[in-house]
């Protein structure tokens, strides 16, 4: 029976240096040749879907943690912040002195000092994942398409979400209180160790997007599988018939997963695809 597979990107398909293991490419290519469908499901907006990633070959893409859904190159759903909403968030971040980047399918628009302030934060993020930090590291090494000189273009009406650097956990708490009608989260760490906050429309997550997609395409939920490594991936693992956590994943997702595979950089995807007979 053909399966529909939903893959998180960072920490699942790619390691923390934006590298895709050759074994993962081999597994995806063979599984699709065997009739299985594979969709990316990620917090990344479409502008972060770099060519070297998309040329692997997928059946569709869910971005912005569920705000955007496409299948076979056709947009099925896209819900974004309005210009008024984006402006309100950006102005609040500026007034609080927080650096940010606006995530849209058309680009990643960074605040004026994001490159400088974000460098040590991204280095900390990579280090926490147990990865070696490259010599002469810059923010654009981790985010190649980040637009550093076009901050004013962040005021737009096609924003999936806005991420911002946390100078302290109090910044997240203040954002959550001020923007209580929105979805305000953190990433890059657990609880008060989080490095980033983000804001988006409410009632959007990876599971909601998968539900929309499979209903539009007539896919049975019983034939779905999901792979992830982080807390934000838990809803889609819970929703799918089979949920697989990566060996490099956090304790929360490992505790609820149906199966735990090896880490992303130790052929984790290939081993799980093989375990579940997707390569036969």
TrEMBL record:
<dbReference type="GO" id="GO:0005829">
    <property type="term" value="C:cytosol"/>
</dbReference>
<dbReference type="InterPro" id="IPR023214">
    <property type="entry name" value="HAD_sf"/>
</dbReference>
<keyword id="KW-0378">Hydrolase</keyword>
<protein>
    <submittedName>
        <fullName>HAD family hydrolase</fullName>
    </submittedName>
</protein>
<dbReference type="GO" id="GO:0016791">
    <property type="term" value="F:phosphatase activity"/>
</dbReference>
<dbReference type="GO" id="GO:0000287">
    <property type="term" value="F:magnesium ion binding"/>
</dbReference>
<dbReference type="InterPro" id="IPR006379">
    <property type="entry name" value="HAD-SF_hydro_IIB"/>
</dbReference>
<dbReference type="InterPro" id="IPR036412">
    <property type="entry name" value="HAD-like_sf"/>
</dbReference>
<dbReference type="InterPro" id="IPR000150">
    <property type="entry name" value="Cof"/>
</dbReference>
<dbReference type="Pfam" id="PF08282">
    <property type="entry name" value="Hydrolase_3"/>
</dbReference>
